[in-house]
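yo, EIF3h C-terminal domain-containing protein is done. seq:
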Amino acid sequence: MMNIDYELVGFYQAHPFGVCFNIDMFFSLVDYQSSQQNAVVLIYDPIRTRQGNLTIRAYRLSRKALELANIGDWSPEVTKQAGLNFSNFFEELPIVVKNSHLINVLLAELALSSRGKKTNTVVLELGTKRALERSVKASMGTVDELNKAVNAYGRYMTEKQKYDAIYASMMQKRAVENEARLARGEPPISIEEIKKQIKQPQMQTKNGMLDLFLGALDANAYASFQIAAANENMTKLHLSQALCNQQMSGSGVGVPSLSSLGGSSSERR
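structure:
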């Protein structure tokens, strides 16, 4: 007997920092959504979860992205005509976590048992320092790959402009030549031969604009994590300062503030 759910709704993956937008995940999601339109992928972030923040996100390919995936053409012209970019490539769906009644009772008892206890400063520790450092180091490779894709796109656009100029010039010459041939009673020359004479440029990436979109989404995921971690650390620093001032006020020892420390260091410089 096999434990298989009769209703297939998608799949899940674990990715640190929520950086999940790779080519394998994309094609897996295409296969799922081709058979089940409402299929989703759940992305679980183990880094944020270990820090006490359960991070689960649900993504689905947008209608435009799914249509282009079925066509298989990721050229800049086709993606531009479809109005597709990295911001509307995926759709993020809201997730609602519901606990059972027993879990709600347990959480309430834990909250009551923690009242009146000594202040716990563990939550003020800068636990995201190592994770922030790891994310910055990991994002460097993603940014390099994204830069290569952007440069390939820039070279393609330059070559495309040259191609369009040469093609327009040859078409104009062929039109004049055909008019002269018709005036002499000769059949016109086919215009299709011009396309065979000049080679149309190709974007020098393995999957066209798809690589650029996925790279931009990964870089954006790294940046979002780093911004959230930096804001959280700044909040903890200010809370730690207020708590330290409160504890030291009884002993008569003053604690310099963050702004005064910054000002004194600038004056020394």
